[in-house]
Fold this sequence. Notes:
148 residues, four-stranded antiparallel beta sheet
Amino acid sequence: xxxxxxxxxxxxxxxxxxxxxxxxxxxxxxxxxxxxxxxxxxxxxxxxxxxxxxxxxxxxxxxxxxxxxxxxxxxxxxxxxxxxxxxxxxxxxxxxxxxxxxxxxxxxxxxxxxxxxxxxxxxxxxxxxxxxxxxxxxxxxxxxxxxx
Length: 148
């Protein structure tokens, strides 16, 4: 099981729980140094289109980096970092894609400002917003194809 917190102040908490042992949890806080919405959306789309595993490398600043991957071969959701590996029970790529899509849509307004360097640059904001919207649309289309 994976849960994404609400993106706030350039940070996002990701919680992974082992479904077989709910007391076994792993929390990771990732920073704005990773383009979270774009990376999540692009990797999910590529995974659905090609069958390759979903994989995003997150930066946690002074806490190191974390790799979140959903292996389509073994079905596990895996997080690797801090010289440790944490696995949760199986989740298929389509269900995982739906979790990512829901998270992005639920937090779309927060993510519109995620990758913005200059708060005053309206053109930059509009370009970033359109990029997110375009990827959300593409992910919805890929999910629909897989469901049909």
